Amino acid sequence: MAVPVSQAWTVATYVLRQKIKGRKRFPLVTMLEPLFRCNLACAGCGKIQYPAHILKQDLTPEECFRAVEESGTPMVSIPGGEPLLHPQIDKIVQGLVQRKKYVYMCTNALLLKEKLHLFKPSKYLSFSVHLDGQREHHDFSVCREGGYDIALEGIKAAVAAGFRVTTNTTLFDGADPNSVRAFFDELMEVGVEGMMVAPGYTYEKAPDQKHFLGRARSRRLFRAILSNRKKTWKFNASPMYMEFLMGKREFACTPWGMPAYSIFGWQKPCYLLQDGYADTFQELIDTTDWSNYGTESGNPKCANCMVHSGYEASGVYYTFGSLRGLLDTAMAVFFDKYEDRGALDLLNEPVNPVHSFNPLIQIETKVNVVEAQRTTA
Fold first, then answer.
1. Do 353 and 291 touch, CB atoms closer than 8 A?
2. Are 133 and 179 in contact (CB under 8 A)?
3. How many CB atoms lie within 10 A of CB 208?
4. What is the SS3 assignment for 33?
């Protein structure tokens, strides 16, 4: 099992308690964004396209703790931006661990090796390293030559120091399924606890709008990648969500399942869309018109979304929503090879990865300017 038993038990009992209470809308993971600035400028990212005065702002540790206590979730994901750029990230993580929250500290790992001394290994802390595939593909995706090698060094250092390390991989059109499967082997060899993989979301502000996957292509790609699995592969994701990616299940989006909190407040309706903000978590739940979101709503911004921030919770809620859900999940856990002759045929189809016919262009980030301004302010 990629997830520790104590964490799986905590999540299971939390979900069951909410259902016993009759709560229809409750969150699973708090997406805590303590800053937006980053030391990368990935072409498919829409999270760092803010002016300098916004990129200079940070959440305080107290603001972070208050938000997590408001939502009451057992798990906290800390994305960004790059959280390791936050001057008090160690205090934020320490405070959440003391509160016995399972923390996934998202990072591109460019600073992980040099910042590792700020943290202590704990069952409550995992570094979730963003890697988008093997060396050439990852460097192309993040617009940074050498990024893969630096990240891998950070992973090895964290594993050697006794930290939990997981990975988060975002795939775009043109991804080579054989390369992704070889990439899984590489991650398992260096001691990664579990892997998470998802198609990219079509951020409106992303510089590259040409290589996002539609739903049909996503299912085809993930069928090829996730069928006929090796026993050595460990995934940090709901088995039901992974079957959803493969086209084996249909789920409605759960946009409140992973609510996002940032310097602006609680983001409506979810981590991926910005349709206003709420001052409190309860206000987010009460004042958001949830019928406007999800594929079934007809909202064009949701049409191709299959991202874990909307559908991972759907898979977990399905598991604990009925005896059938529990049985389906148990079957997926114990019979996880997913033998599929047709998927093997997909692996033999020719692929023309985007990085094979486009040059790697390093996009300059605003972070150096912003950091300089912070220093001289």
1. no
2. yes
3. 18
4. coil
